[in-house]
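Appendix B. Extra example for self-study. Work through it before the problem class; the solution is given directly after the inputs so you can check yourself.
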Amino acid sequence: MTTAIEARNLGKWYRVRGMGAPTLFGAVSQRLRRQDPGKFWALRNVSFDIPQGKTIGVIGPNGSGKSSLLGLTAGTITPSEGYVRAQGRISSLLELGAGFHPDLTGRENVFLNAALLGIPREDIQRRFSHIVEFAGLDEFIDMPVKHYSSGMYVRLGFAVAVEVNPDILLIDEVLAVGDIAFQLKCLDRIREFQRKGKTLLFVSHALQTVEEFCDEVFLIHHGQLAERGNPSDMILKYIRTYMGEGGGLFTQEYGTREAEITGVTFRDETGAENAVLATGKPMWVDIGYVAHQRIEKPVFGYSIKTGNGFYIFGSNTQLAGHSIPFIEGEGLLRLKIDPLTLMHGNFFLSLSIHSWDHTRQFHRREDWYPFAVRNASQEPGLFQLRSAWENLFE
Amino acid sequence: MNFLRTIWERRDLFANLVARDLKQRYKGSVLGFLWSILTPLFMAVIYVFFLRLLAGRGVPTEDIIIGVFAWQFTMQCVNSGMTCITGNANLVKKVAFPRIILPTVNVAAGLINYLLSLIVQFALVAILLGIKGSGMSGWAVLVPVVIVYHSLFNLALALFVSSVNVYFRDTQHLVGVLLSAWFFVSPVMYNLSFAEHLAARWPAAFDLYMLNPMAGVITAYRALIIPGVEFPWSAYTAAGLLIPLALLWLSYILFQRLQRYFADML
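Solution. Structure tokens for the complete assembly:
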């Protein structure tokens, strides 16, 4: 199998000082003061080979160097050390609609954008109606793009970018654009690229999508290629080790803090501490709390979301008919889910303590606790439905 | 040459960007392209009038028209070249394509503009000469050679200012000052006869004066178009004509070196 992308000792640093618009005075004064510009390594010591036809996901906290890696591969950024080489034609979906000129019409911009991406003019002419249809911009194609909505802008950008017939496609978070229908169209297009044996390098925070699409996942942290491996293992490792560090992107915490959630332990059916649960088996969540004052009839609630942030289920002690007369001081509460009907994937648990009439939120931790589910059966999907088959024909 | 191959390989992009440049230049203005004729014409009228008023001696109007149109071409290339990288930051940071296309597009668009305005310029000059009872010189057929040469010089300037401006934003202010000084040391609103007493008193200073490529270029236009105007051939004027080529080579190397880190500096 041939190598599509090869990186050796790849590194990129930026100056910490003097990042703004450079001026002659700034440069001279820096020289005179012998000031060390202060290097910040956005990426360092990164070496890898990506075989042709593979889809590689790149995950990591914000600012870990994912976009630098893509920029270096695309050739928009020059490495400070080492190299990255790509075999074949690269197309990047880094910034959709980059190079659109606001005064030109959609039609003119399609041709301009195509030329930027290196698509021959004849190809675009032939495929023009297809592009417009894909973007869903029939009536607006002769309107200056400055009057477009941001969604229309990005849709047109995507429609042009996927017309390139690249050997390697770089994708940076662009699947989070447009409405659901357009996102599904985009994902379809990605699958088509995969079927055609293209190499894809895919940066995303949508962990569910990464897990679904990628053959392998690179975990990037502090500018280093921390680890690479199969998607579900890497994603689990990522959410357990690094999440929260990115700061506020996934997790948030609020409340008046009369009562606080102190610690949470996931336990499997044997009662052992384990954040990797099995489909069809029980899942226990031990919730430690402390109430700084006596609280009458508190309500504990939980909810679960997928790695993409899709809300699956939520409930609380009130809805479940489990009454807690009062809490005071430290305590422990167990949430029992039996059987766990979630399927293979990574999930986030949110917990909250609030007053019985929902007027006061004492403490809420949103998407705070990650856990993973492994599925022994061959069945695909998000949930396990209790299903059975019966022969009704004679 | 590598440069020509790059442009040829991306000719689609090149043509598209030139079209974009021309479209956007006059978008939203009523007179549109007419401005690239009206502006130098107004300037020519102003110069003719005030020079006669202040210096007490006139310069043939056709001399000034030729000078002003040529100067306008260079100034446009420098000014738009200045921002052709910084103004397209989004493009440069996000899309991989040969950066050298951007300043080249600027000069090409400026050239198209110049060629179109030359039609008007030639008509005017022919009329003015006709009034005086003479016609255009037969040498005028060689004007395209000067145009090519003039364009190469402008490209050298555009490559230089566009790349340096990315690293030092002082460039735009500095160049503004230098341009107005350069305007006066180039025979734009006057002709070489104004430098005659300089030549008589300090021949060395005149030689230095002719090292200015703009002095050579504008005088070459006049010498080819207007009968009776001589190009003052000397070792210095010849050297002055070589400077643009050397500058083009240096600017090209400088640009290619600097462009590696454009994305970091924008």
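Self-check: The mean pLDDT of chain B is 86. If your reasoning did not lead you there, revisit section 3.
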